[in-house]
Amino acid sequence: MARMRASEALVKILESEGVEVIFGVPGANINPVYRALAASPIRHITVRHEEGGTHAADGYARASGKIGVCIGTSGPAGTNMVTGLYTALADSVPILTITGQAPTRILHKEAFQAVDIAEIVRTVTKRSFLVREPAQLPWIVREAFRIMRDGRPGPVHIDLPLDVQLAEIDYDPEVDAPLPIFRVAPPPAAVQRALAWLLTAERPLILAGGGVICANASEELRQLAEYLQIPVVPTLMGWGSIPDDHPLAVGLVGIQTQTRSGNQTFLEADLVLAIGARFAERHTGDLAIYRHGKRFIHVDVEPTQLGRVFPPDLGIVSDAQLFLRALLAAAQAATPPREPSAWVRRVQTLKTALSRPTDFADIPIRPERVFQEINAVFGPQTIFTTAIGLYQIWSGQFQRVFRPRHYLVCGQAGPLGWEVPAAIGAKLAQPSHPVVAICGDYSFQFLMEELAVAVQYRIPIVVIIVNNGNLGLIRQNQRYAHGIRYGVDLGYDLNNGYGIDHVQVAKGMGALARRVQHPDDIQPALRWAAALVEQAERPVLVEILVDPEADAAMGSALDQIREFVPTPDVAGVGV
Description:
By secondary structure, the chain is α/β, with parallel strands linked by helices. It has three domains: 3-175, 3-Layer(aba) Sandwich (Rossmann fold), CATH 3.40.50; 188-353, Rossmann fold, CATH 3.40.50.1220; 367-545, Thiamin diphosphate (ThDP)-binding fold, Pyr/PP domains (Rossmann fold, 3-Layer(aba) Sandwich), CATH 3.40.50.970. The chain is 37% helix and 15% strand. It is built from 24 helices and 19 strands. Strands 3-2-4-5-7-6 form a six-stranded parallel β-sheet, sandwiched between helices. Strands 15-14-16-17-19-18 form a six-stranded parallel β-sheet, with helices on both faces. Helix 18 (390-398) links the parallel strand 14 and strand 15 (407-409).
């Protein structure tokens, strides 16, 4: 059998598992792996911070459906990865993190940077490994990939002592292969009961969670919804599983990221088929209101998700794609394709009548206008990344999404600074698609150094900063509100806001950038960025100053959303 260093075997296995890009930061205790990578076709992107590397791997995995990989040395490299691992675990994203470690003989002697990272990350991974025996490395790596892909996807960490990496082992790549994944099919009796309930319900609704996208089941979802004529409301993580302009697409449901039509439809439904959803509290709000007057069928590949938040009327453990295929086959055997019902017509009426106005000409700029222009400029092929804060809520209320894996958001963990490195990963995963990172002014300051990575490696992404934090600058320029546009860059008063001139920072890193302060200048600036980014082969940043006092429509329950804009009169909209 062929003999090679364990580090070389690791790289061979990564190649075999389909890894094409790795994000990381070199260091002494991971250098043997880097030496092996030098002879590999795998592309390595040196990031500025290990947390940024995990977020880039995360964005890569979400956009591609493949495994994202981040590596680093021992000690703080691993602890810097914790936030990224938590984010991936919370949102069911398969990423592999690998760290170097001090030699095994001194692990117990408080050696330099010899932290027990495998134990530290245990609660934020599906599994963590400390490899002590070199001969076990190939099988542990294969098992790591199996675990990441099996059931509910998620991250795995591998910690490699220096002596383990350097050891020679017997390993022949020609006789090794990825471990098989066995997907869980639904019980036939459960499928039949679900179908019976759907056929007899007056106002059925499909709630499409992130599990639909994880299982690559968006096409099956659309086919089922069209065959049975059932409206679909995605969760934030499931956004894009059905195009926003589809006749059966209603809008988002939630108490923060939501549409009025989505919430109203959900409140009126009498049966909800929830697929790959976990009923997070920012989605459900008050459970008594959320559950009132309806039955729930909950389908999830992870058995412990069933009943975690509330007990469903019917729980089904299944891969989302296999369940939708089985349910569609059962429906086709039981009934001809259905025509749109009064319920479907009602939903379509609500979608039009309850739309929110966005065409505001106010100065300072209203956030609704920002997202109106984003929708106008960037087409359905665009991949968006966004993180946490008011700008995420505005995005969820006013953006439009048309394809799965095109709206990438750190939904549960919500780490600041996620957007830019995730956009880098997404662009490397899908180089033919435009990629746009939507950031808040404060979030951009976390990991903004990763913008330099995009410059260094000529990764063309658009960054949009929705800045509601620099009140001093906006007040300073109020006198220009009448007759003079805000397009002139007046600079920042560093005694106001956070004291950061994002445009100058971006330019200093080698990106192209401009600031917008008038609503009529938003669309030209975005078109400038979209046209220039690929040609320039570098990131292009547009900072938009919005009203710092603008609020978002939110509440504690689906029927108590506080509106902050004028709404149309929908009295008399009936079945």
